[in-house]
Amino acid sequence: MEVLNQLVAGGQFRVVKEPLGFLKLLEWLFSIFAFATCGGFSGSLRLSIECAPPNRSAPITVAFGYPFRLHQVYFEAPSCGAGPPERVFLVGDHSSAAQFFVTVGVGSFLYAPAALGGYLFAPQAYRAGGRGPRIDLGVTAALAFLWLVSSCAWAAALAEVKAATSPSGVLAQVGGCQRPGARCQALGAPRTSGLNTSVVFGFLNLVLWTGNLWFVFKETGWGGLGAPRSAPGGGPPKRPRPGGGVRPPRGGVRPTRGGLRPTWGGLPARLRPGRVRGAPLGRGVRPGSPHLLRQPDVGSSPPAGGAVPKSRPKRRRSGAGPGAEPRPQGGGDRGVGGA
Q1: Which of 28, 226, 241, 272 is 20 to 30 A away from residue 191, measured at CA?
Q2: Which residues of 212-229 are buried (b: 16+ CB within 10 A; e: fewer)?
């Protein structure tokens, strides 16, 4: 009782309200009607055979039922002559179709509550992409096909059973009815309404199991039909990266081999450090990098909105050795004889 209360409190019985669980209940119920109306059938027919006086005969009752081995059913009929009574057998053996139909019904009767119990008590085995939905899909497809074959076979066999047990057909096999002065008539025909109902329930089960294939197929997750599982916090599920792990957010700190370095995905373009030739975009210059920011050359255009940077004077080295004095850059006397 405690387990039942926990299931109700946890909302496990909501699957019964969904088509997947509700159809399992209908399949279980209709399978009972199908195999019970066929396997529990028993009928009889009554005949009256009267020979010419002084021979008289009482009414004859012929009983038959499941599994419809009619070739083993017989009755004693008067020969309307000086000989002993005649033994008359019915025609046909329809046990294979009847037993096949009942076997499929019993199998459906056992599997439907088992699958429903799996939905209720083992929901982790029926998650999208698991093995449980695939097994359920295979068994459901197999039972739907078996209902089609067994229902058609039993419907054809039932037509032959009706013809073999009709009073007019049975009286045609009695030799005493062919003698002059004999009166043969039917007193009662068998009622086969229960057998007709079994055929109807067989095709209803076919419709139920075939229609349930779609809802079971959605649980397998094939074709992207399975509902995605949400994250425990209620947010959208995180998509795993191809190499494993979870994709980090744009802003924040990202671990590297040498330690932690900031990422610039969340900053606008004007606030990011400039890109150096040969360095990756958005990462700036790390200490110890061979790439250094170059100073603007003399004569280059000044940056917009700022002052003109002062250029450093260029030093010219003379052709003399290390101890030579540098030349003045300005114009001076070229020599005594330069005038």
Answers
A1: 28
A2: beebbbbbbbeeeebeee
Give the per-residue pLDDT at 313.
53
Bridge partners, residue 45, by sequence: 62
Residue whose C-alpha is closest to residue 50's, from 167, 166, 186: 186
CA distance 121 to 211: 24
H or E, element range at 254: strand 253-255
Residue type, 15: V
DSSP assigned state of 76: E
Quote the CA–CA distance of 253 and 273 in Å, as a whole number: 16
CB-based contact 318:329 (threshold 8 Å): no
- The full DSSP string for 226-249 is SPPPPPTTSSPPPPBPTTSSBPPP
- pLDDT tens column, 2-58: 555 555 555 567 778 888 889 999 999 999 999 999 999 999 999 988 887 766 677
Report residue 301 CA to chain centroid gap: 69
pLDDT grade for 78, boundaries at 50, 70 and 90: confident
- Would you tell me how many other CB atoms lie within 10 Å of the CB of residue 286? 11
d(CA 163, CA 38): 17
Question: Using an 8 Å Cβ cutoff, are 114 and 31 in contact?
Answer: no
Q: Which of 155, 176, 2, 16 is nearest to 80 (CA)?
A: 176
Rounded distance between C-alpha atoms, residue 316 and residue 319, angstroms:
10
> Is the bond preceding 255 in cis, omega lying within 30 degrees of 0?
no
Instruction: Name 92's bridge partners.
Output: none
Largest CA distance in the chain: 182
Give the pLDDT mean for 254-282: 53
Count of CB atoms situated within 10 Å of the CB of 156: 12
d(CA 332, CA 241): 73
SS3 303: coil
